[in-house]
Amino acid sequence: MKYPSTITILHTNDLHSELDNWPAVTALLKERRRHALKEGHDVLLFDIGDHSDRVHPMTEALLGKGNIELLNAMAYDAVAIGNNEGITFSKNELNHLYDDAAFPVILTNLIDPSTKRSPEWTIPSKVITLENGIKIGVTSATVPFKQFYTPLGWEINDPIEALDKEASQLKGQCDYLICLSHLGLNQDYKLIDQVPEFDLILGSHTHHVLEQGEHYKGTWINQSGRSGQYIGEVTLTANGEGSLEISNIGSIPVDVTKRDSETENLLSRLNQRATCLLNEPVTMLDQPLEVDWYQDSTLPRLLADGLRTWCNTDLAMVNAGTLLNGLKPGLVTRGMLHEICPHPINPVVVTITGEELFSTMQKAETADMIHFRLRGFGFRGTVLGKMMYSSAVTFIQEENPIDPRHVMINNETIDFNRQYTVATLDMFTLGKLYPAIRDAGQTDILMPEFLRDILSWTLSKVNLTFGESG
């Protein structure tokens, strides 16, 4: 380091395409940047991933490239990728997501098996040299969801091992070492335990709001929530010995009433482009396809049948709450399907015994599960809703609890000792909702298709002429 300096680091994380908030986020970022520059500070700006989320129609239609335009407009110095960038786009889409990025994408732990190298659109680290000679080293890693990256054609490596290797090479080249971590707070603690070289971790993924940062074993961590409700700010000041120390760290609430007009205008143009693309027709309906979260209804049943056919399984099961609304008679467009099924959820095929299947059915029929308000795992709905089965499954009589003697699969009573292939939702392979599905001996997540892609395919293939409505 040549000269004393003060550095302001601004950062964002986990916007999840809550784009209504983005003009307020950029207004605050611009305000804090102007203030820091006026005070004579150097200013750096980073995003720590999950800026994109295909729940938003603009992100869906433009395949994330609109999000890149929004980041470009703010002159980010570097970004990390989150799981929403990494596993909700096909390999080809991800390979071209950052074609027009005006910033480096820093990532250490993603490998293309076809080349045995990191993808060309990434760099493992960057040393940013400020005007006064101070060198800031930056590296990054993302959460290693192998069960999703592998079927997409990627190899995802252990992030801490990858960061350890990169930090060892960087430490002698820079005055201050930063990790952009899309790993989550608990993993950030583990990272510090194993890689003490980092001076600062800018975190994400678990949506924690660290109002004044957190100091753990000599390393500072900052993370700033979700959905553009906060931005992060860190101030580094040179001490008497010439090394950098944190003099201010924390998260600043975003005032949604203060909005940046340039961002709003850009966002409006992007939304107009998206609307044109989402007007693509899928099918025509003569009669409505209804959705009821709490009892049998037409569209969830149709989706379950389509899922079974597409996956070629013994049966399929889909909770009604994945469909946020039904479809009216008339033209059905791609945008309408995204509106009623916005989740980044993929189909999955699991092989389980009849006994495990029945225990899953029993749990699914309970009021607790039907009314369960799920958050996370890709679910963007309100409640799970009633479990709907493909027409291969019939119940001889309505009863609660259900009796295995009255459960028929392909016209045969369910066999507790038989292995069944079940098409369902990838979110059930995570967490504690349905242990039999989560712990299935064979699990195949089918990617890159989302549930709405299966719905679109089903609607375009099935004869949906119901005759004249009365």
Automatic annotation (TrEMBL):
The source's domain of life comes to: Bacteria
Q: Does the keyword DNA repair apply?
A: no
Claim: Hydrolase is one of the keywords in the record: yes
One GO term of the cellular component aspect?
Answer: outer membrane-bounded periplasmic space
- What Pfam families does the record point to? 5_nucleotid_C (PF02872), Metallophos (PF00149)
Q: Which UniProt keywords apply?
A: Hydrolase, Nucleotide-binding, Signal
- MF terms (GO), sorted A to Z: 5'-nucleotidase activity; metal ion binding; nucleotide binding; UDP-sugar diphosphatase activity
Q: Which residues form the 5'-Nucleotidase C-terminal domain?
A: 292-431
UniProt domain Calcineurin-like phosphoesterase: residue ranges? 8-208
Q: Which InterPro entries match?
A: 5'-Nucleotdase_C, 5'-Nucleotdase_C_sf, 5'-Nucleotdase_CS, 5_nucleotidase/apyrase, Calcineurin-like_PHP, Metallo-depent_PP-like, Pesterase_YunD
Q: Name one GO biological process term.
A: nucleotide catabolic process
Q: Which family does it belong to?
A: Belongs to the 5'-nucleotidase family.
Q: What is this protein called?
A: 2',3'-cyclic-nucleotide 2'-phosphodiesterase/5'-or 3'-nucleotidase, 5'-nucleotidase family
- Organism expressing this protein natively: Salisediminibacterium beveridgei
Lineage of origin: Bacteria, Bacillati, Bacillota, Bacilli, Bacillales
